[in-house]
Request: fold
Amino acid sequence: MEFRDLKRQYQALQTEIDAGIQEVLRNTDFISGKKVSELEEKLAADTGVRHVISCANGTDALSLALMAWGIGPKDAVFVPDFTFFASGEAVALQGATPIFTDVREDTYNLDPDKLKIAVENVFREKKWTPRAILAVDLFGQPAEYDAIRRIADEYGLLLLEDGAQGFGGQIHGKKACSFGDIATTSFFPAKPLGCYGDGGAVFTNNDAWAELIRSYRIHGKGRYKYDNVRVGMNSRLDTLQAAVLLAKYNAFCSYELEQVNRIADRYAQLLSECVKIPVILEGYRSSWAQYTIQLRNEQERNSLQQYLKSHGVPGMVYYPKPMHSQKAFEAYEMDETDLTVTKQLCKKVLSLPMHPYLEDSEIVQIAELIREWAGR
Ligand SMILES: *Cc1c(COP(=O)(O)O)cnc(C)c1O
Reply:
């Protein structure tokens, strides 16, 4: 069994994907081709965000947003302690300080109460200038944007939505990647909407930031490519990747999202009595980048992961280490007292196979193995 079965997806969508790739090969418009702008327009229409700027990957997308805001040394950005490394890395790469903030145990997303405390602490200490909150839509569920937006407004902070795992999620019908002042996503193959290599995008309604991001994305270009008005980067989405994404996008909207939600319901039905299952808040919809359960402690988690593995079922630990204890961040002074939930989660979480092509017999098999393991 595969953790995320991209082969089955390719089998289902082969005709459309092959045709899209062939068209790019015939047109040879490999860089900034027609399909790139077509994809950007589609994503803009779908999320209701005015500007969608594709780029080389989800990490660059975060960097481009921070560059557009001029975030750098002496600035602080609040980042969840429980996330993929890139969320904190992009902040540090700009020379700013990531302030790692704890998450909620049930949703895995930023805890607004702890965020508020962290923001007040940084303002009180006056060591850095708090500039932005980087909220992550972890495992497919949007962060709590009502509460986070109130905190951002109260303290004059910008809000960056890291929707790398969140694309396809919703809060009361409003789509993920539309909540931040700037939002970003990733098209890494295993993300909810993935291409066949690296890819990413930036979303914003702000015309001035969009113009800056378009410039930073291509060597800080001015009026044309050889007029360079700022130091930027080379971060474009390949036309071949745009073709793959366009071919997958119809399936993503028309049935894949519904399918992963049905699978999550099925898991919940079969597992809720023997392990802690993920919580989706009222009115929220997840795109289920991961289906992450919790065990009581590290020993149980490792034992279940091993048991599943010995029966051919892959389970992954996202994430085994809090951001604050990554070696790369050891130079930053950290107040660990309030990061207890993340520390615990890193020991207790286990993500199960989850993708739109998972069959019911496989879900039943996984659930039976877990119940067998629990009843031993
Ligand atoms: C995957 C991911 C990224 C980075 O995306 P890449 O396309 O791999 O660079 C950033 N943040 C989160 C939360 C992610 O899961």
